[in-house]
Amino acid sequence: MVDRTRSRAESAVRLALRRGRVVLLAGPRQSGKTTLARTFVRPGQPTYFDLEHPADLVRLAEPMTALAGLRGLIVIDEVQRRPDLFPVLRVLADRRPSRARFLVLGSASGDLLRQSSESLAGRLEVVELGGFTLDEVGPAVAERLWRRGGFPRAFLARSEADCCSWREQFIRTFLERDVPQLGGPSDPTTLLRFWSMVAHYHGQVWNHAEPARSLGVSQPTIRRYLDLLTSVFMVRQLQPWHQNLAKRQVKSPKVYLRDTGLLHQLLGIRTQADLLRHPKLGASWEGFVVDLLIHQLRPDEMYFWGTHQGAELDLLCFHRGRRYGFEIKRADAPTLAPSMRIAMKDLRLHRLNVVYPGVARYRLAERIVAVPFDDLASTSWSALDA
Fold it and tell me: In order of start, what are the domains of the chain with their CATH numbers?
């Protein structure tokens, strides 16, 4: 299973390297980026640089001198620690004839992507690597993937206790080491409290005011905290879709923790029994499915939609000019709801798919179909139209 996961990601990186000279492999810490990069270039080789290793930082003290004479594939890990490298990479990537390609790894998306896109416009391809996903591990262990999350060491832990211990250590290290390096608060307790608040908002429309009051900080500070967690792949802000309709529409984002294992750790969920009786059960499953759909389908654009009159749509995806809707229902046999008809009409959906944890695919109305969760492991846009 692990080999298959790595082979899928490896193929994506190889394809990107064939197309361009600089590839950014982006994703959270401990998601397997370094392991994957080491299948291309082994540590200790002159073309491998780990920017958390003091010796490699010294080697790159004069980056143009250090990199200009190298040939083949050059790997630079934790590149967000040296954003000044991007202009150097632009110069080296533009050399004719081309002497090298660059695989750079980063675990902070916001500033990193902005800096890289400014310096490497037209030269960079981004491959995002998260944790394990359903198509990689298979539907047979979907419950385990949902409960433990996709981080390899959490998912593959020998016991639930080992899984929880790893997640606890991950959260502590992230708050004490990574966050201050990225310009976040130096007091880990503050961000832990905030992160726990976001966990309780999981699957809901975000409101800056309530966390600001609870923490005794300003709303701009709360926005900065949320953007920080988003930039390091911990949180997904799903933006609202709104257009000129005769309805008042929700205009604040929904928030999801991107890894359900970390969500469960922050909510105090340790076992399957804890999960099944927790009040955030439905929201947890919704976020799990939303993340899988986005990973599997890679839509051109993605939103949620809601009105103040109560109509809503969990996920609105744009693909080749068509609008696809997704409702996520943790029910034995979902039925047609008025909100679904409203979404079909008001959003002019090409198709509305209702994802549920059953086994049968069936029609609820014209162009509204109930889709079993297990089908997501191999779903595609053409399969959704079938």
Answer: 2-128 (3.40.50.300), 134-385 (1.10.10.10)
